[in-house]
Every structure is written in C-alpha cells, then in structure tokens.
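TICKET #2291
ISSUE: user wants both folds in one file
ATTACHMENT 1:
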Amino acid sequence: MIMKNKILFLSAFIVLLTTGCSKKFLEEMKPYDKYGEEAVFESQTLTGAYIDRMYNFYFSAYRNPLQQVVGQYNDSRSRMTDEIGGTVSNYINPNINLQTAAQADNYIGTALATSGAPNNPYTRIRFANFLIQKIDEYGKNITEDFKKTAKGQMYFFRALQYFDLVRVYGGVPIVTTVQNASLTDESIRIPRATSSECFAQIIKDLDEAASLLPMQWDAANYGRLTAAGALALKSRVLLTAASPLFNSDWDNTGNEKWQKALDAGLEAESKLTAAGYGLYGSNAKDWSEMTFKNDNAFNKEALIVQLLSSTNTNTIGINNSWENSVRPTDYKGGGGLAAPKEMLDLFPLADGSRPTVANGYVDTFFFEKRDPRFYRTFAFSGAKWGIATNANKSTWFYRWKTSATASSGTFYNNNQTNSPGLVRKMSNPAADSLSFQFSGTDIFEYRYAELLLNIAECYAAKGDITNAVNYLGKIRSRVGIPSANNYGIGTPSSKYAALEACLYERRVELAYEGKRFWDVQRWLLYDNIAPYNTVQKLGLTPINGTQRTGYYWQSITYSPATTNPLTVADRNILIDPDAANFETEIARLKALVRTKFVMTPLDQAWDRVNNVATTILFRPNYYLSGLPGALLGNNPWLQQTIGWLDYSGIQGTFDYQQ
C-alpha cells in the first residue's frame, strides 16, 4: 500500500521486511498509489477503503485457531506445547542452541526496504499512525462519528501490533507519529522502550479505542473491532504484564500489577455484560456450537472475531483451514489432528475432579465419564461426528497386524493416526465433505470465557481463593458440570494451588484455540527458572524433558491386511453425548476395547529428530527472542536482549523485565 509519490515507510531504524472473509472490510484491496495523502481522507468511501485494507493487512492470514502473532499467523508456537505432537522445531530441539542474532525471530523484520511497503509490524503501525495523525487535517468532508470510529480502529490495531511485538521480543521502539525513512536523520533513531513503557502505551491505545468505538456494530459491520474487544484485550495485556515473565514481583499478593489486571477484568466484565455480552448458551452442546451457530452474526461470547467465508473464489473471500485439517482421511479431510495422550488424559472427569487413578480414571478407557467438554473437543472410535450428508456419521481409529513380527499395521479406512483420539473442537457437523477447504466457520480469537478466566487468575494471584474458585465455577457451570465440591475443583489450599487450578482450567476451556503457548511463556513453565521457581511453586512438572506421546488401538488378533478383524456389528456403535443412550453406547465401546484391542506404543516415537526419539528442551533465553541480526546491523543504537548475542557477537544488555 503506497501513496502518490510517497512510499509509506516508517523510519530508517525499522523499515523492515517480513516474511475472507465474507465481509467487504476484510477483502478490500484498493490501489492507494492512485491517491495522494489528502485525497485518501476527502471522502468516507476512500477512508473506509483505507480502514478495510488495514483489516486485510492484519487478519487475511488468520485462517486457523492455532495460528498466532498478528500479520504472520502460523501455528509454530502451538506446536511447541503439549497440545500437538510430532513437530520438533528449533526452539524445542535439544540438539540446537539458539543465541546469535542471526538465529533470532525475524517477526519484527529484517532489512531496510528499498521500494514498496511490506506488510510487517512497523508498516502496519505506520498506517495506523497515518490515519490517526491526518484524518482531522484532511477529512473535512467526513462526519465526526465516522472519524471517531476510524481512529478507534487504528488505536486498536496499533495496540494489537505492539502487544504481539512485546510478547515476542519484550520492549521495542515506540513510534506513534508518521516518520519518513532516513539513514541520516538522528531524530528517528528511537531506542527500545522498556517492556513497562510498551505495556503503558498499549493500554493507552486501548483506552482510546474503547472511548471511540461502539460496544457493538450494526449487522453490516459485525466483525469490526469494538470497545468491548478493547476492554477485554486490556485485561489480557495487563494479565500478561503481571505474570512472572514480565513481573519479578509476581509472588507478592499486593503487587500493583495484579490489582491493575484485576480492575481491568472486572471493568470489562461489568461493561460487557451491560452491553449484552456473556457466556454463550447454557450447556455443553451450546458450547460446542458457538463458533458456527448464527455464522457471521453477533455472538455474545465473541469479543474479537475473525469472520471467514465459504466461497471457493480466493479473490473475494478468506476460508477457514481448520475444518479440512481436523477431518480424518475417510471423511475426505486432510487427515486429522491427532491428540497426544497427554491431552486425552488431561480433561476432568464428569464430576469435575482430576482424572487420577485415585479418582477412578483408567487411561485405556479415556472416553468414559469425562467432562462434557471432552466429547466436544475430541473424536474417537464410534463417536458421532456428522457431515452435511450424514448427521450420524462416525469413524474408527485402530489398526491390525498380520503377525506379531510385522513391522507395521493396516489402519481402518486408511485413518493412519498417532492417537485413538482426534481433535474435533470448532468443527461444524453440517460441513460438506466435498468442500471442507472452503469452510466459513468464524474464529473467536477472544471469548468471554477467557475474560472470566483472567479475572479468576488475578484473584488467585492476590490470594483471594474464594473469588478465584467462584469464577472458575462460572466456566464449569455453563457446560453442565455438577456444582458439588465447587464443581469438582474443591477448595485450593493456597494461592499457588488456586493459580494452578486457573491454568488447568485454561488448558481445558481454551484447548486448541492458540492460547496455550502464551500461558506457558508468561508463567515460565518449560523449566523451573530461579529465582521465580514457578513450576515448583505451582506444583507442576516442567515441560522440558517431556515428549508428546501417542499410541495405537491395535487389534489383539492378527489378520491379513485385507481382512478387518472387527465386524460391522462390532462397529455398530454411535456415541452421541446428547442422546438418551449415551452411557449405554459408552459401555458398549468399553466392552469392545476390553475384548478386541490393546494399547500399543507407536512404531516410532512421535517426537523425534533425524528419526531419533527426543524430549523437549526450550532454553531460558527463548522465552523472549533477541532482535535479528539484519535489524541490529542497520540500527546499531538498538540494544540486544540479555541472553542473546548482538550483531558483533557480544552479549545483550537489554532487560525485558524493566
């Protein structure tokens, strides 16, 4: 996006290169090189197109709930957690030690661009600054109401971008005015702000956005950023700032950062509730349907939503890639997203208690007597998982071998998976198997449930266990967990136990929604880093040293590859959590598993490097990346982050906890 005779660069220090929805404002691609600065704001039509292009710049790549980081949107961070096995990136590979600037994350960009305006963080920030700075000067024909919402969206965009920059790097240079690229202008050589200064700027922008935007848009503009979203994001930002990653005083119940985060959460809850937002539905079925029910229309739980389209024409719409990726082979899908054993064993039991041996949990029968959300998050053999042409369709995930010495086995219907359970959350049972890749299911980037979880965590950190448990109870009550013993949570014995309960509930409620990595990051859960010792204090096991494990349901009898050891009658099971015979069908599956299958380790470890089994190792300096070498080379006044080497190979000095 360029203006007439004016390339829209930011400033010399950070002009960088980086690597549909059904709504017009997410599809607009106006050629701004045909208009001058003044002309862009001469009419609401052109200004509206400018705003629409910003939505495209920010969100056009956001097609999957596991994808993270504004503008980039890939699932690499999700694949560094316990939610997904098999991908051992450099950040969790024990054989690699990243510490040089050349190995740092390039999200912020690489080198000064000589032409064009690449869609990278500081370009997006510059575009937001441009409208904020120029619309009042040049927008004489634009109504005041339109100007307000235009600026409100830009403040929100800028806050979103700075928040992700801080989550990736810690403090970064703050630029809130339009600057032109120059290699000689000393005034634009802006140093890195502290993380605290960045958080303060983000909150300032969100406050501005909340004051200028409506709590809800009309139907034609549903999906745009709102005051409700700004208030909710303020809660997330301040919670992050209060967490151990950025707060060395996190263990102090009187720390003001926790109080600020709590105040923001409660303010958001009050204002959003008054504006018609809240938890969607009153049972687990509603919970499972919220993303595709009333598609592209107001949903009280959606605080920041990415609208997507079912069009098969790429030039006029953006599709959701999730439906195709989670559907197994015999559904004509992409093969499915197998759930590690750690995730299948995670969810509470039906009474809300933890799935332990003492509580009666048997991992062989992982599908028995579980939290109602379990049956909406995972699919397993015999479970109802419909499609447009067959509401009662189900499938099976097992294999058989020809002999005890056979090196591999045959999978039912070619459903070769590393787990007897696949992720099905946010899948539409009315999706057409002929067009999974053109799914229009919206992505709820921020749900009201997360806001309640934020509040619970703040209460726990402040030592208010009663209120923490009350807010966790709101989450569990909605999906139908019985209220006994505080919905199965019990009464945590300390603030640490309450914090662990909050993080546990986030893992369950927000599973596969792209939130797990950020929780692991801000709580330093890969290892027990001194002096914070969060893993030990919360009673957790470090993620480092673990691996994502899978297993097969394998037939106990041997059969030729072409002879299925299970009969049609064996597979005459349909497990529907909404049906009256649900418990009966679960019992039938349990009996079948007991008599026909054995849990069998994978032929090869799921997590491996060069075909050698490995465990996760995420090093302490990875929690926040250093700045990349090309950026430091062109901008020598920028400090490198502690734990990373600068452009000259010298240890960094920038402390991101300030």
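ATTACHMENT 2:
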Amino acid sequence: MFLNAKTGQGKELLEKDHLTFDPAMHDEGYAIVPAGAGGLAIIAETSAGFFYGAQTVKQLIRGSGKDAVLLVPTIRDWPAMPHRGVSDDWSRGPLPNMDFLKREIRTLAAYKYNIFSPYFEGTFAYASSSIAAYPGGTMTPAEGRELVEYAAKYHITIIPEQESFGHLHHVLKFEQFSHLGENPHGQVLAPGDAGTLPLIGSWFSELAQVFPGPWVHIGADETFELGLGRTRDQVQQRGLGPVYLDFLTQVHATLAPNHKRLLFWGDIAENSPDLVGTLPKDMIAVPWHYDAKPDFTKAIAPFIKAGLETWVAPGVNNWNRIYPNNNEALGNIRAFVRDGQKLGAVGMLNTVWNDDGEGIFDENWYGILFGAAAAWQSGESSEDAFASSYGLAFHRDSTGKIDQAQQEIRAVHALLKTAGLEDAQDSLFWLDPFSPEGQRTAVKLRPALSQMRLHAEHAVTLIAEARAAGKLDNEEALDALELGARRIDFVGLKFQAADECVDEYNQALAIESDAKRHDEVEDLLYTIGSNNGRLEDIRDGYTQLRELFKQAWLRDNRQYWLENDLARYDRAADLWIGRGQRWNLVIQQWYDTHALPSLADAGLPASSR
C-alpha cells in the first residue's frame, strides 16, 4: 500500500516503527515497513518517493510465479545526490531506435536514475542546419517530444546536449558552415566570427521547443584546435583560458532568452582554475575523468571553490572495447562519485561513448547500474557488494552464474593489461595477425591467449547455465554479454590459428624433401587451409560474429551507420577468403611439383616467436 508520511496510517506506521521522515527525504525519499499479512507499505511525501519505493519493492521479490517470495524488511532510503543521470553518445555511430529508448528509460528509472542526456553533435534534425541532418541518422523534434512525454512518466528529465564549441566536424564539414570554424572543415567553432553565436542560438532555441526541462548541456569539451587557426593571435596575446572562458560567457548570454541553466564539460576550464570564477554563477560545471585513479579532488575543487554548481561525470569504459572494461569503470565511478559527494557536487552524469562506432548499449548495464548505486548511496560504494548482487538485482539470477560471467570478462581485461596491452580493445578484433603490427602484438598476446579464451568461453557457458536454471530478466543484456565473450574468444582463436599456420608450414618445409613423409606434408597443408583449416576458422569467425553483431545492433539502434560496421566484417572475411583461395594454389603446387614455396611466397609471415 502507498501511504503519505504526514498523515493517517502512514504517520502511525512510522511512529510504530520509531522511524522519522527527515527533511532530506522529502523530494525522493521513502520508507518501507511491514504492513501485516506479509505485506509492505511504501511511505513517502511525493510521487517520486512512491515511485522509487516501488522500484525497491520489485527488487525484494525472489523467485517467480507460485514460488515467488516477497522479502519484508524495514527500509528508510533517500538519494545522496539529487541529480543522477546518464549521458548517451548519439553522434559516433549508434543512434537508438524509439523502442529501445523507451526500454532504456524504463530500466534507468527502475534503478533510480532521474536524468537522461542524449549527446548531439550533428544528429538532431535542426531546421536551421538541415543539411547536417542525414536522413535516418537524426532524432526528429517529434521523436524528442515523444521521448520527453514518455520519460516524464518515469520521473526522468531529458537534458539535451548539443556541442557548441568543439566536436562539430559533422556540421563544419559542410561548405555552408565551414567558414565558422577555427580551421576549414575542422572541429571547433571560431570565437569572434559573426555567424557563430547566431548558429548556436538557433540550435538551442529549437531544442527549447522540444525539451522543456530546466537544463541544457552545451558541451564545450576537447577544443583542441582553439588557437591553432583563426584565433591564433588572440590566444597568443590573451592566453587559451581567457579566450575559452569568454566564449562560454558569450554563449551563456546568447542562450539567456531560453531560460535554461547551462551544463558544460569542465575539462578545459579545469586548466584555468583562477579564471573559473569569471563564469556566470548559474552555469553548472561537469568535470569528467574516466580512469580509475584514487583521488579526483583536483578535477572537482576548482568549480566548487568558484561557487559553481558541480556534477561529476565518470564513464562506463565501453569506448573502443570489445566489451566494457568494468575493472576500470567501477574504480572510476566509485572514487569520482565519492569525491564529488565529499566536496559538494550535487549530480552525476555517467557517460557512454561510442568512439569507434561499434557501441552496443546493452553491453553497458554493469557500469550504468553501478553508477546508479554510487550516486544514490552516501559515501563510497562497494565494488565487491555490487559485483555479488548485480546478477540477482538486474537479471533475477539466483544461481550467481551471471555475476561469475561478468567476472570472467573482467579477468580478461586484467590478463591483457598484465600482458602489456591496455585491455580487450576493439583493435585486437580487427587486427590482421599476419601483418607486421599483428606480429608485434602477438608477442605480447601469446602468453595470455589460452587463459583469455578459457575465461571468455566459461562466460558463455555460465550464461547458458543461468538461462537453463530459470527465466531471467533483461535478456538483451545477456545476449550482449555473450556477444562480447564470443568476440574475445575469437581474438584468441585468430592469433592462435595464425601461429599454428606458420608452425605447421615450417614443419612441412622441414620434411618436404623426404618422399616417405609426403603424406604428412599433405596433412599439414590441409590443416592450414581446407574445409576445416585454420584459415577457414578465422573466416568463419568474422562471418558468424557479423550476424550476431547485426542482431544486437538492430535490437538497440536504427539502421543508420550499421553498414560502416558490417563493411569491416565483410572486408575481414574477404581477406581470409582470399587467403584460403591462395592456399589452394599452394596445395596444387605441392601436388604438381612436390615443392613448397617459401613462407613469404605462401602468404605467411615469418614466425616472431
């Protein structure tokens, strides 16, 4: 039952259990108390409080159907940070479809996020810059309004982010806008150009008609070109910090008629702490850092000291990775949010980036949910407690196997870091092991290949066992986890198979002159390339994973951009198809002459072992 904390039975139950409903609980807090016959009462003062209390009750259900059991604890709960959001990159490939967006909103709300921030560079359909709105590759105003209306039902506010300084190549590449850039067809708008502020103003005026919330995000990060083109003299005379911060102040004045508070990324301003105080005091600084370092005070303190409202922005470490590096993500989120709370930050934007254009959002829920916990809970969240409860809380997996599967992928990232690589990067998936770079990378990879594959394959097995044990929630995230594990396993197979091709051919070369062993040579040649050969194994990996990737993409995203990714799969498969065809000529030469070409002439690299 739902009861008001201030009146009647709600007030009586709180008094009975010697509970107080503190002022800090008013906006979003709630109490859950036993209410007779194994039931529960949710006591709150606002609709948001009742909503979040209901989300907690959902997590108290164990089992399903006739075996379902409701736990009946006493809980008094409210958020440590009032603003808890996710920033989702819609500008580097993936652009979510509306069905997925609604599922995403429902899921974020279930874990008590109250902000969603789509990130635009050139992917909102502005009437004022329609040339940049690629058909099928933008969110339309009608879709934006639909999302706002849907999210409001789940107590989520949409904060659109439109880059307004840097990261604008996909606008500036068009000739009609190129003259506004620091450099022609570049990345950064040029402060001082007469057309720059009107363009920004038109964008945010259109956004204000679609997104009625109190905030907008103007981006303004990574303005690396500033001072390298049209503003070179200005920056040399005044300094980079003053030129940058003055332009932010001008943007603030330009957007004042929209009556929105402006969020901005804090990375550039962080380098000019003495000047941060010159910014308008109603702006909101969002410092971002994504590594798992022990302390983030330096990133946060300049904005707090300047009297600016501050939100922190950790990240889920998904970018450029086969599957997110949750070792790095959890360490980053834990410490950054902890230090933000300690220093007085009042919000968190947990970030998703899709730098290489291959992002599958359903792979990101582990880091997303840890961010939800860290921003809601006071103080430092426990990585271990989260890791042991994620599977049950998100998938209703009572076996613990989904938690184990996630740990297997985390173990791969740690293993590769120990081997001298950053982690399970997407570049490893695409790297040709026969290339010079592939051979250099193989030297580091070889000691880890077997264990890497065993971890990944065990993750796939654990997922299957958990599914067999009972119906699970959020199956899409499990499909994405399995895709990540299979892609990691393929990396190991690819490098192992490449080494085996070279090893077996060297064996064949060593015995080719011994007529008594010609059958062995033939077997070795067919092991390298045939219906079950190593070359075909690599080909099959790319073609099979292509279909799994396509399915995962279309489950979350629009068709837009997909062909760029599928073209990489096709190109990789074609490479190995060609090598298989070339190998047929090597086999035919053996039959004709009983002589083998050199490694290089056979298309194989010299061994770098």
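RESOLUTION: both attachments delivered.
EXTRA DETAIL ON ATTACHMENT 2: The two ends are 68 Å apart (CA to CA).
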